[in-house]
Amino acid sequence: MSIKLVVFDIAGTTIQDEIGVMNAFRETLKSHGYEVPIDEVALVMGYKKIEAIRVLLKNSPDQSAITDKLINKIHDDFVKHMISFYSDSAEIQVFPHTEETFKNLHEQGVKVGLNTGFTRAIADTIINRLQWQEKGLVDYVIASDEVEQGRPHPYMIQKMMSAFDITDSNEVAKVGDTEVDIHEGQNAGCKYVIGVTTGSFTREALEPYNPTHIIDDIADVLTIINE
Questions:
Q1: What is the pTM of this model?
Q2: Which burial class, exposed, middle or buried, applies to 67 when counting CB atoms under 10 A from its CB (0-12, 13-18, 19+)?
Q3: Domain 5-17+93-225 belongs to what topology?
């Protein structure tokens, strides 16, 4: 059965700014009085960002201070930080072969989707800057605040499948750079769940989560779906 849809993560998978995102997390948390090591931040990349903040603060000594109001305030500040970063930073670069891979998938009649643990406002800032929809490179974008629950839950992939009238998850591949990307694809029942080593997780860090494939170059997605 052929693949009809490939769902790609954004940061760390198609654009190489994972360090910028992690630093934004650390700076935002620090502005609220919380110091979090970057290796801990790396572990929550891919999660819905408000949930990532909750996870990062779960070991804070004074849990009585960790209220929903505080978490929402930190998240709001993070969103503002990221919109500014993606609007202005010269550091944002598309990974090699990404746009060519999107084009080649379209030539084969495969839909290209993007999903993310960011909010829609951040996702739109990225996609608008890159002009991927105007260029006809991306067919659908969905963010974690547009579904009931973000990764590792399968809802973003399922909503995208519904938009394209795809009922069989064996016709879908998921590509991402984190543990929760892999679990998301597995929970959605995707035929291929492909880990990429271009983001927060190394090959060795991805292996325990049992993706169907681990790749170093996004172009290898084409080889996998045409096996």
A1: 0.90
A2: exposed
A3: Rossmann fold (3.40.50)
